[in-house]
Amino acid sequence: MADGKEYFVGVDLGGTKILAAVFSPALKCLGKSKRSTKAERGAQAVIDRIARCVSDAVDECDLDLKLCRGVGIGAPGAVDFEAGKVVFAPNLDWKDLPLKKELEKRLEVPVFLDNDCNVCSLGVYEKELGAKPASMVGMFIGTGIGGGLVLEGKPYSGMSHTAGEIGHMVVQVDGPKCGCGRKGCLEAVASRTAMFKRLQTAVKDGEKTELTDIVGEDLSDLKSSHLRKALKRGDKLVKRTIEDAARYIGIGAANLINILNPEYVVLGGGVIDALEDEMFGAIVESAREHTFPGADRGLKIVASKLGDDAGITGAAVLARRCAK
Predict the structure, then answer these.
(1) pLDDT for 207-228, tens place per residue?
(2) What is the architecture, at CATH level 2, of domain 132-303?
(3) What letter would DSSP give residue 177?
(4) Which of 59, 62, 60, 89 is nearest to 73 (CA)?
């Protein structure tokens, strides 16, 4: 395959896994590699693992890294893409880490860095929407809730590069405490973590659920797929929990629609991947119900089909956009 063409590498860096993939200029995925992050070994060890994961993906395609015009990487937390630094990534215990510089030392190719949800949004925008809409909001529901904004065809990150932190808009005043320290954030009431906490508390308080038969009394090994199983058994507690989360996600979407008036709202992330059939309709209904009259005219709310590939695809798009 080493035929002189130019390729791009996309990397999705998470707290538990690193995923790297090689893409053609037309964003066709040619090969992938995956490694565990092992954040407990420290930043330099993780950067070594990212570099090896990139090399493995390139090797999988029988290519030379020199044929790659750039490596894009989506990293969790606050990212200063201009400085190439991860400003703060709590699940990696990183602060002011010059990731771009460190990776370029190891790989000897240009590296481009952005926040993981911004990168996922870019992947959806280019690959699924063909870069056609002028504006798009991405909402990614998983362990937490993140987002990304594309305005006038370009990623929007704001003055200090923190735009898109949609998980921390307050949707329930004096609601449950969020990991950020405030109360009532969307992430604190509608993420997978929030749903699981609510279910575990309800069981401790004596409420009945099919989940105790499926995963055990303390629900310590709960997964999104277990919620679907419980729903099929007619579990009222799980049904109520999912419906409430969907309603709040819809309220969050409505707030974004009212402020930004985008052409598309795209829903993605592990929770949507696992529970789209159970949640999507309720999210759309709630969003439409809470949107200012006229603000949703022509609006399309869709679920992403890229799944785990959104991050690597978007990172490759980032490299393609930024590489000289």
Answers:
(1) 999 999 999 888 988 999 999 9
(2) 2-Layer Sandwich (3.30)
(3) B
(4) 89
